[in-house]
């Protein structure tokens, strides 16, 4: 039975335009002109006999029919991408390795994964890792990744999420800073330079109250805009920083940082491994998650 389907390239244009709600942005993504996108969308609408977009002077918007159809089209593209990837992994004649594409935040990549890649490659020589770092959330239905490692609450819709580890926050500093200020009692956080994360202005006072210390002023000598930046500043001896364990286990083990006080406080975000339900039987994903979890547990036990 012959199928009456629109041309695939028209569906690709429709999906991009609908996702962006813009012919211009779809054109930029697909290296076409906005007029070409508009012309092709009209061809698709003529093919279907249904209006998919409402045109306005400031852009375009999906009609109710378009909103319903784009769900089907996006699911179709995901199935096609998933099937193509599975075919390549199973039947590729060029390589016997499995490609595992991972998205994670920079700190997890640089502090935990990359320093131990040699160990992973020895244990799983048939798995090729492609790791990209970003702070942005991704949609595993459409983005070109198989697995994401993220900090959050694990409540991500339409995906499988496995908790890898909890986070605890504690003051950290360079060995020289700890020696200079003779740090031994957590009450000293009231009298030494504190490094502040610019987007978490009350973090020191909140942490102090959590461990039973009142009146910790947010009088930091230095405020920086990212977690990695405040950690680097602490390594340079510029002050105390609130660091997350086990993310900083490598720096602690190597002596770049020290933990001068025993007090820690649980941090609400946890580390989760996230993947699509269709990939729940993939051995490479479970191999990496098991290896990563064991790696963190071992480092926390040292």
> What percentage of the residues does DSSP assign to strands (E)?
15-25%
> Major beta sheet, specifics?
6 strands, mixed
The total strand number stands at 10
CATH architecture of the largest domain: 3-Layer(aba) Sandwich
Shape: elongated
Protein name: LysR family transcriptional regulator
GO biological process, one term: DNA-templated transcription
Pfam families: HTH_1 (PF00126), LysR_substrate (PF03466)
Family: Belongs to the LysR transcriptional regulatory family.
Short structural description:
This protein has 302 residues and is of the alpha/beta class.
List keywords for this structure.
two-stranded antiparallel ribbon; 11 helices; single chain; Arc Repressor Mutant, subunit A
Structure explained in plain terms:
- The structure is a single chain.
- With 302 residues, this protein is α/β, with parallel strands linked by helices.
- It has two domains: 8-90, Arc Repressor Mutant, subunit A; 95-302, 3-Layer(aba) Sandwich (D-Maltodextrin-Binding Protein, domain 2).
- The protein has helices spanning 8-20, 23-30, 34-48, 64-91, 106-113, 117-123, 175-180, 203-210, 227-235, 249-254, 283-301, and strands spanning 53-56, 59-62, 98-104, 127-133, 147-152, 160-172, 195-197, 222-224, 241-245, 265-275.
């Amino acid at each position: 039975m012959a199928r009456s389907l629109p041309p695939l390239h028209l569906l690709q244009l429709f999906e991009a335009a609908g996702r962006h709600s813009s012919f211009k942005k779809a054109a930029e993504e697909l290296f076409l002109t906005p007029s070409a996108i508009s012309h092709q969308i009209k061809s698709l609408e003529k093919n279907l006999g249904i209006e998919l977009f409402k045109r306005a002077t400031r852009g375009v918007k999906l009609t109710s029919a378009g909103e319903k159809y784009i769900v089907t089209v996006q699911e179709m593209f995901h199935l096609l991408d998933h099937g193509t990837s599975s075919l390549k992994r199973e039947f590729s004649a060029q390589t016997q390795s499995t490609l595992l594409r991972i998205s994670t935040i920079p700190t997890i990549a640089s502090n935990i994964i990359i320093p131990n890649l040699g160990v992973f490659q020895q244990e799983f020589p048939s798995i090729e890792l492609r790791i990209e770092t970003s702070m942005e959330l991704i949609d595993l239905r459409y983005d070109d990744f198989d697995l994401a490692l993220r900090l959050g609450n694990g409540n991500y819709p339409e995906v499988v999420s496995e908790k890898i580890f909890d986070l605890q926050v504690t003051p950290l500093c360079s060995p020289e800073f700890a020696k200079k200020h003779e740090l031994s009692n957590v009450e000293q956080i009231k009298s030494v330079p504190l490094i502040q994360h610019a987007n978490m202005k009350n973090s020191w006072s909140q942490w102090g109250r959590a461990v039973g210390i009142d009146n910790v002023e947010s009088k930091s000598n230095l405020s920086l805009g990212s977690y990695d930046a405040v950690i680097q500043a602490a390594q340079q001896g510029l002050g105390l920083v609130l660091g997350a364990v086990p993310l900083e286990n490598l720096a602690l083990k190597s002596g770049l940082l020290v933990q001068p006080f025993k007090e820690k406080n649980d941090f609400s975000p946890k580390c989760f491994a996230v993947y699509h339900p269709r990939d729940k039987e993939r051995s490479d994903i479970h191999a990496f998650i098991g290896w990563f979890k064991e790696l963190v547990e071992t480092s926390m036990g040292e």
